[in-house]
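Researcher: Re-running this chain for the archive, since the previous output was lost when a drive failed. Same request as before.
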Amino acid sequence: MKEFELKMQGKIKRLTNKTFKFDKRVKDGWFSAVYFLKTREIVKDALPNNMVTMQFFQKENAVLCGTDEAIALIHTFADHPEELDIYSLKDGDKISPYETVLTITGPYQNFGFLEGIIDGILSRRTSVATNVYNVVKAARASGRQKPIIFMGDRDDHFTQQAGDGYAAYIGGSTAQATHAMNEWWGKEGMGTMPHALIQMFKGDVVAAARAYHEKFPEDDLVALVDYNNDVITDSLKVAREFGEKLKGVRIDTSRTLVDQYFFRNPELMGTFDPRGVNPELVFALRRALDDEGFNHVKIVVSGGFNEKRIREFEEQNVPVDIYGVGSSLLKINIGFTGDNVLLNGEPEAKKGRRFRPNPRLEKAEYIPQQE
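Model: Regenerated structure tokens:
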């Protein structure tokens, strides 16, 4: 077992290959493309004394993530990893198109079969980190940073949660929906009430909030208020019931519904799209809460939010305090490529590719874990 130093702006001191919980079948090539496995066997027999440099890059402006996981993978499954020269940027670094983020130098047969797995790690983690970073940036367009809750638990296979949560943390989200999402960076999941809790109390939001508060009195009380599609009425009910104890209300109205507020105020209709969580509904909710002295109650919105939609809200100064974001953060839109670019110290690569030295790279060192 090896332990790896992580210099991530002082946020996390160490991540280990135990942290990443790799599938042991990686060693057997189970997750590697078969042509890499065949190449390994050919090279072992025909060119055993080779020395290659493999470099990794992508084609966007992005927030890098996955390097520590990739380094841990190499040290766990490569043959004689202590003999490899590995240079890397750090998780959280801003990277440019075609910038080299990782190089590995050593005998091809010792590590080459890991190429595709490393590509996949870097692609997914960097995509999520970059998506979150862009959403976090959009959420401060009005001049005040609004927290982003990472709510991606229902949008992908559950086995991805730990890595996605870590990548989201690298991108700037420090509130996440499950314990697994927080596993690699040392916190616990957070959350209040789902629609299921209100359903159990037959749509009585106050009763559901009371039961929640009695069971978890140390938690900040944030009531979900769209169950009956009447967010202002239900928000005022819970605010009147709990007063200062109510810390916030969350709106999660479906994009196919129009809240009852607009049916009570038909003169507002016709100049905007009234469906779902829209700016006019949030403005109206803020006014209603403030008019009754509940200025302290924060407004949380969720349901279909992405970078574009958050930026639109912020540009209109919509009084949102916290955004909950899910599926848009998990879109994999950044692909990494690994190329062999040096052979025995001399340039040798396919046409269109070449060795791209990067002075920002740092030697990746590891420390044997003390038993």
